[in-house]
Amino acid sequence: MKLAVVGAAGRTGRLVVDLALAAGHTVTAVARTPSRLPDFAHGTPLTAQADVQRPGSLHAPLAGQDAVVSTLGTTGRAATTVFSDGARELVAAARAGGVRHVVAMSSAGLDSDHLPLAQRVVTRLVVDRLYREVHRDLARMEAVLTESDTIWTVVRVPMLKDGPPSPAPWVSYGLPLPKAGTATRATVASWIVGHLGAAETFRHLVAIADG
After folding, report:
1. What is the per-residue pLDDT across 62-81, written as a single tens digit (0 to 9) for each?
2. pLDDT per residue over 77-103, tens digit each?
3. What is the pTM of this model?
4. Most buried by CB count within 10 Å: which residue of 138, 140, 166, 204?
5. What are phi and psi of 165, to 5 degrees?
6. Cβ pair 73, 137 in contact under 8 A
């Protein structure tokens, strides 16, 4: 499969690139600053420079790709439009380039109504206040994807940490997981690479956490 990874210089994006190379995919690592890309253990990807907030910059990197994975992130908690801008650029470039599957990372924090009372209180009083602006733009991103005619998969992740992948992660299609948890970046990256082009993930919000 020909795969583009947008946000490839980030900690999760790097893992997606490396695992996709190990799986034999032809990978284009797309980054705003390609010089920040590391050496990869399982091969050398193609590289492309793009800024998702610059209209049209994803068209060339995504042309002819089979799938694209967006692992965009932000280092701050201020108001941002990077996720929603990125989603609009992904949809436009995917449509123009014939991309069949768009996978984007989002946050499990967008839905806390189902959590046990103690976790719900902490989420709403602490997490929601800290990440309110980021969550607002992630919600806008999800809306852009779900309202498009693109074949999309949104992967909602909890608090991310470093470490090895979970051998048996909890995964839920269309429904949130019953309690808040954590996931290693390796768990998320491994699941994404293992489900590229998987029809059962199409047009689903997928919640994932370490088992």
Report:
1. 999 999 999 999 888 888 99
2. 888 999 999 999 999 999 999 999 999
3. 0.91
4. 138
5. -70, 150
6. no
| pLDDT value of residue 100 | 96
Cα-based distances in Å from 104 to 5, 107, 154? 10, 10, 5
Q: Which residues pair with 152 in a beta bridge?
A: 102
Specify burial of residue 53 (Cβ count, 10 A radius: 0-12, 13-18, 19+).
middle
Look at phi and psi of residue 35 and say left if phi exceeds 0, alpha if psi is from -120 to 50, else beta. Answer: alpha
Looking up tokens 């998987």 gives 198
Structure confidence at residue 175 as a pLDDT band (50, 70, 90): confident
- Residue pair 65/31 in contact (Cβ under 8 Å)? The answer is no
Average per-residue pLDDT for the chain: 91
Q: Any idea which residue has 């210089």 for tokens?
A: 9
CB atoms within 10 A of CB 92: 17
Lowest mean pLDDT among 60-64, 70-74, 109-113, 170-174: 109-113
Q: For the CA atoms of 127, 132, 136, 137, what is the dihedral angle to 10 degrees?
A: -90
> How big is the chain, counted in residues?
211
The two structure tokens encoding residue 69: 């994975």
For 182-200, b where at least 16 C-beta lie within 10 A, e where not — what string? ebbbbbbbbbbbebbeeee
Using DSSP's 3-state secondary structure scheme, residue 175 falls into coil
